[in-house]
Prior knowledge:
Elements: H1 2-15, H2 26-42, H3 52-67, H4 69-88, H5 101-104, H6 108-121, H7 130-150, H8 164-181, H9 188-198, H10 204-212, H11 216-241, H12 243-267
Amino acid sequence: MELEAQIRVAIRDAVNRRSRKPFYWGGLRGYDQLHDIVQVLRSVPAEESETDYLRRLAMQVDRAVEKNRIMVEDVRAAHTWLRRIAECLRYPPSSFPASDSSEASLTSEQVRREMEGLLQEFQPDLKRRPAQAALYDAWHRVWENCGPEWLHCYDIPGLPPDNLALESLFGRLRCHQRRISGRKSTRELRDFGQYQVLFLAESEEELLQQIRHVPLAEYQDRRRRLAEAEAPRQFLHRLHRDPLGTMRRLVDQHTARRALLASSASRSPPGSDS
């Protein structure tokens, strides 16, 4: 019974296989796992009474495998074409090192020609192959709308084809911020995250050297512009926390400003331009 329970766990795992990785399709891996399981269960001897449960289980799994065979062939073909698209785009970059002479001379025009050739070659049965039809529609739509914007990374050295590394960096910053503050919110990074990304140093001396590269006048100007940009959000924050006190301070500031303007006007000599 323990062994039969493990077989059921294997079947359940195959049916519920998931993955967030773009080239790892859990459905295909799960189907292949089910196919291997049924191949093993078919070899169970039928003349032994203790194998009745396994043989019934094999019949159910075999029925599920056969029922989804045509759909899996369609999905597998779509997955193969997705791999060809990735190879055309030389993605992920780790699989296509820049030290290779053929990759070092790669240009956006070459990638565009190869991609258009694949588009012409991919002609699935749109009525009987829903997975390939979905890939066909998405491929054409995305390439027509965003294709030219993808090609800059092949002409500009050092420009990555995606922002996954940057997202990973901000993910680590958010994790560190939660550990520092003990709170789930990471709103502080909205104010100071750009500095943490800009200044990555191993010591205080290295950080100070990086900061000194910024001219003081430019820093003060940027700081003033940042304060002006943050002023509306900070005002709403104060208003939400203390509406009565915030409005009183506004009225007091308005009164003080009126008094200052009135005193300036009274001190102005007659006939002067106010």
